[in-house]
Amino acid sequence: MDHDDFRQWAHRAADWSADYLDSLGDLPVRAQVAPGAVFRQVPDDPPAAPEPMEAIFADLDRVVMPGITHWQHPRFFAYFPANASPPSIIAEQVTAAIAAQCMLWQTSPAATELETRMIDWLRRMIGLPDAFSGVIQDSASGATLAALLTARERALDFRGNRDGLAGGPIMRIYASAQVHSSVDKAVRIAGFGDANLVRIPVQGSLFSMDPAALEAAIVADQEAGRIPAAIVAALGGTSIGACDDIAAVAAVARRHGVFLHVDAAWAGSAMICPEFRHLMRGAEEVDSFVFNPHKWLFTNFDCSAHFIRDPKALTDTLGIRPPFLRTLGQEGFVDYNEWSIPLGRRFRALKLWFVIRAYGVERLRDMVRAHVAWAGELAERFGQTPDFEVVTPPILSLFTFRYAPADTSEEQRDRLNAALVERVNQDGRIYLTQTQHEGRFVIRFQAGATTTTREDVLTTLNVVRELADNLRAASPDEPVAIAAE
Ligand SMILES: Cc1ncc(COP(=O)(O)O)c(C=O)c1O
């Protein structure tokens, strides 16, 4: 493909993208295909000869698009958002054309320096003090792993990387059961072992770690000769949005010299609104804090902002400096590969620069605020609707509810709600997912897509009520035969 052809097809791709975004509201949110349906349409062997772009584009519509779940759909209320926005998409297009590897300062000085500036913009936007520096990681999972590796090395006085972990002391990580599974994964990869992830019970309306129980667990471990290496606090847990009391946890961490990492992957974006910052009270005391602009700050995946109090501890943990990666003849620069797990790095700062400038901070705040307000309004309406109950109240834009007709047992309700969520997603007008809360099957709702409106959010109640009525009418005695898990 020469550059003239590229220009033509890039224009076509831009038109295709705009048409796609325009059409989203009319598509079923969750892909409606059966497992294997897309795979079977792709030939076993790759083509030996070039194929025309026209044919490839036609197959994009014919083969691929039916198997796409539309994350940018205005009625995508499942999981958490992984939102995009036109300025971010344009920046991604430009980034793909530049296609720089941003591992060293000299492999693209602009990428490094823009990254430093964007991290600082984000730090100011969420109100963290300037004691933090940071890096754009590929994911919250990557940031949490980097944080726990740093905590491990700090706990071992940086001997772990040199000597390995075999025969070393037992190190412990503390978190509630509300943290994301990326914490469990990081605990494994960093060599702590599942058995050393200590679960701290939660309390209160935000389902926060009990600081007294945390402290007791740390003291018990110290007395038993185990090393408390890190605490991971949740700011917006995945299941129901649990928020730890960061100030209380930080006080425990400080008293015992334990590294504290905060996973604010989803909720962190809302911290750009000063009125929500009570949820991060104490964050200025932590060692490490991650949030994902690629979730709820209108920036395409991947883009995780990772703030660190002591970057030297991070680079002493992850930095490896072979002769072929040295930048000669320059000083006073950062090589961000030393802050992350992979060497190769995308130019992620550009899309943040586009998004923050194209919207401005006030507009970004308004969008997040609106999502929170609409989710609150919807929860209130569910709470007033016969046969429905709000199980966990809104934490920012996330709440859980269930269908709970008075004449049903808890077991029937589990089955009923499992069937209901599946019917909702087959119906396609909205997309919801489920979780388990205190042993019961509940349905999650979150709002966060870029183009979601209040009407989209409020539609949820009508769709859910209609499908719940159908479900009961279909099998009034034994509601459904679908298992809850
Ligand atoms: C609270 C929380 N932490 C971490 C993650 C993992 O994020 P990532 O995909 O960026 O690794 C998620 C994903 O939804 C999450 O909700």
Helical fraction equals: 40-55%
Top CATH class of the largest domain = Alpha Beta
- Topology-level CATH name of the largest domain: Aspartate Aminotransferase, domain 2
CATH architecture of the largest domain: 3-Layer(aba) Sandwich
Spatially, the strands of the biggest sheet line up as 1-9-8-7-6-2-3
Layout of helices and strands:
Elements: H1 3-23, H2 53-64, H3 86-98, H4 109-126, E1 133-137, H5 140-155, H6 160-163, E2 171-176, H7 181-189, E3 197-200, E4 202-203, E5 208-209, H8 211-223, E6 227-234, H9 246-256, E7 259-263, E8 288-291, H10 293-296, E9 304-308, H11 311-318, H12 349-359, H13 361-383, E10 388-395, E11 398-403, H14 410-427, E12 433-437, E13 440-446, H15 454-474
Parallel strand pairs: 2-3, 2-6, 6-7, 7-8
Antiparallel strand pairs: 1-9, 4-5, 8-9, 10-11, 11-13, 12-13
Helix pairs in contact: 3-12, 4-12, 5-7, 5-11, 8-9, 13-15, 14-15
Bound molecules: pyridoxal-5'-phosphate.
Describe this structure in words.
This protein has 485 residues and is an alpha/beta fold. Helix content is 42%, strand content 14%. The protein has 15 helices and 13 strands. The chain has helices at 3-23, 53-64, 86-98, 109-126, 140-155, 160-163, 181-189, 211-223, 246-256, 293-296, 311-318, 349-359, 361-383, 410-427, 454-474; strands at residues 133-137, 171-176, 197-200, 202-203, 208-209, 227-234, 259-263, 288-291, 304-308, 388-395, 398-403, 433-437, 440-446. The model is unreliable at 479-485 (pLDDT under 50). The chain binds pyridoxal-5'-phosphate. Pyridoxal-5'-phosphate (PLP) is lined by residues 80, 139-141, 180, 182, 236-238, 263, 265-266, 292, 304.
